[in-house]
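DM from R.C. (forwarded with permission)

"hey, sorry to bug you on a friday — could you get me a structure for this? deadline for the figure draft is monday and I only need the backbone to look sensible"
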Amino acid sequence: MDRNLPDTATDYGLVLATDLDGTFLGGNDDERRTLYEAIEARDDVLLVFVTGRDVDFIRDLIARPGMPTPRYIVGDVGTSVYDVEQDFKPVTALEAEIATIWGNANDRVVEMLKNEPGIELQPTPFRHRVSYYYKPAELQDSTVRKIEEAGFDCLTSADLYLDVLPKGIAKGPTLRRMVEALALPHDRVLAAGDTMNDLSMLDCGLKSVAVGNSEDRLLAALPDAPHIYRATGHGCAGVLEAIHHFDLTQK
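My reply, with the result:
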């Protein structure tokens, strides 16, 4: 469905910056349908997917009937930004700093970690990060230290994913840069997530929700603060719960 969006950024009634797996794709069929239809019925929503998923996955996702189309994607755990309306063209103004910090380090990271136990390189290549599957019982503290001492950030989530990221780059910092660059209304932004790779986004000073199925490590890491809401509903139900909690319904 094509929606007539506001002429200026300050007219948005809701800027929903949401993780996908477990969050915007979480909940049962009825809960997902309720949230998606509520978004499509409004003319004041800017939808941003903030995800570890790649562009090919998202192209397939938004081709599904009933799936709302985002305007922007903060992808690859915050290391890339795409404009969906411009055929998924990278937003170079927001990616320039990320690319500079990363410094084409993919091959260097793979070589550095090629013999480390407990990790397996993911088959999908990314532009500004290197991603692995990991086994919590086998991952060595020395591996994490090696990553950090080489000047990168190491992020684990869902007891399955390990990402080597540019120093200081994650979902939260990139979302904040987007909000500033597009002059979006801070008080109308809602960030939503469920795993540890969402921590930086949920604790970046914007309104946020940890949905009801969030992993325990995330809930333990989040501070008690009025701008952070812990929902009881899972996935989409938790997102809709937070929209009402923060009074981000239609103006």
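R.C.: lifesaver. The chain has two domains: 9-98+169-245, 102-166.
me: no worries. The radius of gyration is 18 Å.
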